[in-house]
């Protein structure tokens, strides 16, 4: 169960304090992503789908140096959605892809704070 909680934390680490956002569409889209991930239940594939839609929107406006990181987040969220709330599948996902998602979220978190003034706590930054 701890791994499932860690998976949920990784996917929802976007919950944070939002401050003024400067940087155009990327920052605005990032705010939408944060809102969609707030209080996300990783077992609810519909909620994961909404967060995934926002992640895809953000990735299109992301700076070039974050495109690969957003691809990792999207791939991870798609797999979480495909698990359809199955705890065993979600645990397996946390084991198999956990090492990929953490550095991606760290890069996204740093850029969000530096450029958009949006805090995405929990990424180990």
From TrEMBL:
PROSITE patterns: PROKAR_LIPOPROTEIN. Residues 1-20 form the signal peptide. Keywords: Signal. This is Small secreted protein.
């Amino acid at each position: 169960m701890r791994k499932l909680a860690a998976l949920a934390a990784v996917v929802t680490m976007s919950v944070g304090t939002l401050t003024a956002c400067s940087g155009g569409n990327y920052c605005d889209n990032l705010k939408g992503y944060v809102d969609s991930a707030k209080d996300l239940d990783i077992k609810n594939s519909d909620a994961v789908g909404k967060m995934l839609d926002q992640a895809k929107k953000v990735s299109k406006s992301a700076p070039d140096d974050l495109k690969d990181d957003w691809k990792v987040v999207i791939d991870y969220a798609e797999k979480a959605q495909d698990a359809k709330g199955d705890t065993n599948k979600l645990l397996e996902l946390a084991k198999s892809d956990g090492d990929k998602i953490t550095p991606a979220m760290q890069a996204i978190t740093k850029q969000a704070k530096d450029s958009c003034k949006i805090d995405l706590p929990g990424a180990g930054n």
